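Q: My collaborator sent me two sequences in one message, no labels, and asked for predicted structures for both. Can we handle them in order? The first one she listed is below.
A: Yes, handling them in the order given. First sequence, followed by its structure tokens:
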Amino acid sequence: MTEETQAQPLNPYDEVPYGGQTVPLAHPERLALAAMKRGLSPAPPDRCRILELGCAEGGNVIPLAFHLDRCELVGVDGSAVQIDKATEARDRLGLDNLELVHADFMELPDDLGTFDYILCHGVFSWVAEDVRAKILDLCASHLSEHGVAYISYNCAPGWAIRAQMRRALMERVKGVSDPEQRIRRVREVLSWMADSPIKDTPWGRLLAEEAKGVWSHRDAYLVHEYLSPENRPFYFREVTEAARAHGLRFLAELTRATTDPRLEDAFRASFGAHVEDPEEAEELAELFLFRAFRCSLFVRGDAPLGGPEDGPHPELMDRVRMTGSLAPESKRVSLEPKVHEFFRANGVRISADDAVLKAALVEIGRAWPASLSLSEIEERVVALLELRRVLAPGEPPSAAQLAAMRDDLMGLTRYDVLEQRLLDPPIVDRAGETPRVSALTRLQAEAAPWVTTPHHRVVPLDAFTRLLVRYLDGARGRAELAQRMKPYAESGEVSLTLEDGSALGPEDLDEVIPKLVDASLDALASRGVLV
């Protein structure tokens, strides 16, 4: 065999594809909000150009192209296998606003054009140094003046233990080329780590918890996270300094270091008086909270960023929308002033005693999964307070009360009680007589037990709902849907049991399946899946 005809090394993502993955944070809406908070005028997230570097099988870029049909998107990946799968899905959905490119980043042409948003998730830590430099160059060269780049990477403090685990796993598979055998050996080592003789020591407990967490991931993640020849965790300042060297500037961080925002805020406040440099503050929080992962945003070095004294973009408060799955603990919330009421959202319990704020929380909860602008919230608050006779007709809340409500709502977004949005995609909050999901949802349900909502959120599906979704094309009523689902239960493809765990008999199916259909439709509506 001559040198020219020798086979090229197989791309590891051709050998073990990573699969489709929707990344809720990797959406232009999130990036635009962050830019507006720093005074920039980013392109509207539903009318822009988007580049995704490392698009894999299209799990993120295809939902973006489907739901943002007035945008122009380009997805690039070095794996031919993954690009082929993405192309098949794109063509089935008829997406003419998405170009998919099989190419090495180092060989991308200079005529890609300018992009308003560049996304690079799960790539930066897992490629060689020259490729990392190229990613930063591409962002600096192809971002528009007010454009935003998203780059995710592993962080050194949180990877202190994981790096040792990765080293042990790589030693265990040294010399083994078969992917299935490599994965089998990895899981053997993880099982041992989770139940080793030192599991009751302080170090052993840390190791066991990490091993259990890693074990829960799918095979492709294990291969590309723990067996990849490249996986470099970074300190925050290393990345920002590299970005500056390539003509970029840090804008914002999309993720938190911990799952408890109150703890993180308290920790930052504890050293805030002594640390003025924002990057130093970020690095301190990263070190002592053992941050393991970041999703950082960057802009061009010449982007007209405002400082803390400049405030956000003047249109931000007019354009921002609020949403949240707020559930009051009381059946009927008292709107009287100084009466405490409690609400829950995303596992967080909050209390409010201000009449205006309580009314706002009630209205946001009623609107879920849709969002409301601040002006819409104010209108609904006034109407509700007048209806409950907390306010006299024609005597709306004062400007100071409404301003305080806005501040309180914005504050609740810091704790994931509420979420800020700029877009309001068409969804329905109730299943009608002929319920419908999008063509994208039906396609995704064929391949995976999860779907992407129009808000770019991932919703897991149980086996029954996953099959049901395939028939939600808006042409079938509930009775027909129940009949479609009955054969799956009869054949055992879907396992249905009674509350005591016993199997359903054939005589039970006619009664139970329609109820399951209704319950599944209600759940899909509450998660923003129905359109």
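Q: And the one she listed second?
A: Here it is, processed independently of the first:
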Amino acid sequence: MFERNDRDMINADLSLKTKIKFNSVGCLYLPVDDSETISNWYENLFNSAGTRTCGVIWETTKEKGLTCNFMTDEWVPGEPYEMFAVRFETDAIEELYARLTEAQVELEPMKLDESGASFIYRDPQRNKFQVWQRAGTETQPLRDGVPAFIGVATLFFPVTDPEVTRKWYVNLGVHINDSGQAVTGRGEEIYFLRSMEPGKTLNFYTGAGEIQHMAIAMININELETTHGQLKAHGYKVQEHILDREGCGYQFQLYDPDGNKLDMWDMQTMVRRNLQNLGSPNWKDRYIFENCCFWVGIDEFFAKTLEHAPGTRHKRITVVNHTVIQETDPDGILELVKTVEAFGAQYPEWAFEIIYKEGAGEYAHLA
């Protein structure tokens, strides 16, 4: 929870000169006792432990029994309600509801209103989540290999004063829609509900891994380094240093007025030598394009970018071990750079910035 002087600072005019655009929710991190058990449960009932457009990482925590639920008296006006933190969107709500009913999953009745159909379920961790199918969506059957969830529709955060938090988002420059909610470029909404639990946030602690103090959501933005510097200069509470997580991108943590964290993130794709094909006469075979979503050649990388596949639609390509590559394969790397630049000329919206990095990188042994 922020101290009083921190909240006074947040309430001050911290409007940024260059506004931040939240492109999309890139990933969710959710607390569980056993990530393998929960992942298998979702694979079995929802066809995937994630969604079609957004990754979901089930993080095993030291403290057992954690959920991302919180108590509010704003969802049902004037009445205490155990609130869910995420609304997932689907296009197969009827068959999914029937499947969960048959599996004896704890469900609330399906509801219909002008926005569409929805229901709420609890998973084995006791996390509550809402499933929603927007009005006008043609209902589909569940399909093998296709996640039941299209993606995240809405995030709900516990806050002390929703108007203070809304002003904070406005000062950042995040778009506010007609209903008064912050919204990403992809359309995911962010709601702020008054918490009945003082100091409550959606943050949690894993006790293991590179990042142990977790935010619930990773938000994709552009120009991450510039944004980080601007936020620090304007007095926002941010993580001191940017983390370079190679194929997982660049990120830092930003705190809202109540201390809820957001992982601010900019994806990058790493270009590495393909150690299995260094002798190939085709330069394309000698390089791998990889990040946390894929490990492919250059042509498939371009195809994924045009398809808006997970892990694409970003601006940064990082060539690792550049000096060694330049010495051992100058013609190949020249052709690669020319091809990337030609793709950017053909599709200006996705003209990549090429960064050159020395050293093989953390994951070079996998190439």
